[in-house]
Batch of 3 targets.
Target 1
Amino acid sequence: MTNTNKPESDQASEAQTSFDGITFEVEEEEHTQEGNKVKRRGIYLWPNLITTSALLSGFYSIIASMNGDYTQAIYAIFIAALLDGLDGRVARAIGAQSAFGEQFDSLSDLLAFGVAPAILMYSWSLHDLGRIGLAACFVYTACAAFRLARFNVQIGVVDKRYFIGVASPLAAIMIVSLVWVGRDFPLIFDLKDVAIQTVNAVIIVAVGLLMISNIKYYSFKTVDRSRVPFFVLPIVVFILAAMTYNIPVGILVISIIYALSGFVTTFMARKSA
């Protein structure tokens, strides 16, 4: 009597449900309220639709930068940053968090905040430096990829009150605001000056390194769930009013202050440890 047991590969293929290689479907495990693992198909529409819009904004920024339309490229990255802050909140509000959404969000962030700002800076200022400018922009993009990969593996491990390294959207805003200010003050930011080009290359590399550093930055994730003293509101109003005098300069100054605040936050955290 012969043994008719099927190979393990055949058994595994039969155990898989109706995935014939043609259908476009997503299947992932989720934990129920009872703690059981269940497999669900499909994706949550609204959070992933917002993420797709952020991806589109990043893609449009790249095209605009390549065409020399830097103003539209700047606006597109800012829109992507707003949408990036919105998709996670929508997902948590409607209970639509998923592993697919987390990975999709990271890929969207890499394009919108890793690739698009680098191409913007290269097209605007660093192309005359040749390979040096190309290398500087690549360092920034690679650091953004490292930052997002590290963030994904550290979810649930690090303190939610802090970012370890500058978050990629905030790094992108630093680069974008610098380009925006440079366009508003062409006499100061003379792009034909090699010294200005070199400074811009150093800045984009430095911002990239801040993303993969171990410097702690306050994440503001607990602000919406806790009370603050009343005097904080007039301070915020004053800052917003000051920004209206020159919005690009205001955003750049706030970005620089936030970048420097990480060193203070790290020092205070180590002192209290």
Target 2
Amino acid sequence: MTDFNKFLRTSRLPSSREMSCRSIKEYQKQHGKITPDMLKKNFSEILIECIQIEYRMFQEIINELRESWASDLLKKNDRHKKFPTISKISDDVISCLTSSSSPEEMFSKITKLTSAINDGVSFGQKQAAKTRAGEAFQNYLEHFFDILDFRYERQKAIKSGEVLDIIFPDLPTLKKKTADCIMMECQTTLKDRFRLSLGKGQDLQGVARFIATMTGASVITERDKNDLTKGKIAEIGEKHWRLVTLKQVAQKHSSNTIISFEEFVNKQYPSRSGLW
């Protein structure tokens, strides 16, 4: 089922970066071109709306995919080799349609045959949505940093098995002038995976460490509004990291560990960029 879901996404779903670009275009149709001044004032609000637009676009495509998986399968000439189990089910469905069974019997058989595939397709796309949410979040951050003309590099390995999501301004400067640079990890929510970020770059003395996150405002999931606990905030601060969050989330917490995206782009980045 995993391979079949991957085939469906490849055939119907644009790449994460392309989806994010479509969302930004739609946002700009409604609000005008995104400018540096807009981001400095309303970075959080623009980020939220772009993610919500992309989510709606994604759901529309997924709904089409659920309705069209059978036709996509039948158009694939090597389906019996690539997807033998699902192809056998589709053959059985076709046999039902050409049988002399009553409409009631035919409907019952087809429903029974296809229900497992429908469930598998739905589950597979839900899992894909979780992965793409993280990719979309980083796509928007990078696009907005480009608009702001920030210097950065993405997905750079600082040593074997340790890759940073974003480095300001770049890897060579990080190695030569570590204390003047910024490293940023991107986590849509603060589940257990954020602790992997806390362990990165431990030997980089003086570098400013930030975890950018959407958590705390129920933007990604309804449950994430309770994700930002005092224990997590304390743990992040003890490891000498800071959180960059949505404006409304930062305003709820009186902690030096938490700043808004607006503060990052107006104060934190400018305070270091002059040293490069």
Target 3
Amino acid sequence: MNPNSWQFNRQELNALAMSLHTPTPRLGWGRRLYRFEVAGQGYWLKYQSLSEHAALINGFDAELSFYQHALAMLQLPKFLPEVQILENFEFHSEQVKVALILKNVPSLLMANPRQLSRDHIIHIIFKMLNAVEELHQMGWIHADLKASHFLLDGSTCKLIDFEQSQRIGETARQKALTATPRYMAPELFHGEAKTVQTDLYALGIILLEWLTDQRLQASSYQDWAYLHCQFLKIALPEPFQGFSPLLQGLLAKQKSQRWQNIMAAKRCLMTEIE
């Protein structure tokens, strides 16, 4: 099912002016990420060339599989970004097996919360919760949530970058995947599987950094483990202390004490409204 008001063909892509945005180390591993613009609207072209870098290959395949699954649904998820899957074409003298084209839209968390009303902040958080909840209701976890993965298309929150995504309860690919230490739940440092609750923890870190306007700091993987497993403190600025119960439920170090699902976070946020 094609949800887009736009589609590009193979000839168009080769005629468009594009800028390469792939981080330098990944170029040698076959990853390609281009940005281009048509009629004032930006787009991303993403594909993986053949290489020996298994993590990048597996990541791209996982994201492709997720989009194929979502696009095949009778009712498209609201959080799904506008995406086109284009197969078997030549691009700049390179044979591309399959590529993703995504509409470029701004970050949901661009604004400093100190410049927003309390109601506006609550509105933004609800958008984030709704997007992640819909993903979980599909039977998937994102498994690598970051602030940059929450976008705003019109009035709708979109999620992107599903390279680590997996079905809820899936463990077969667990050892082959990575997570970003900044957002890792304590149990992941002990080798446990990713779950709905590890998504909730990552969401808590995203909100903590946004509301405090401060990035967590650590210099090594071991330091990140100490931070998340022992030393993380929830200290919000005075205007945002009403959100402390929300973050405490999302960021409980013990999985048994952390909320089980997004609905629990929503209920907590509703009390902030009341």
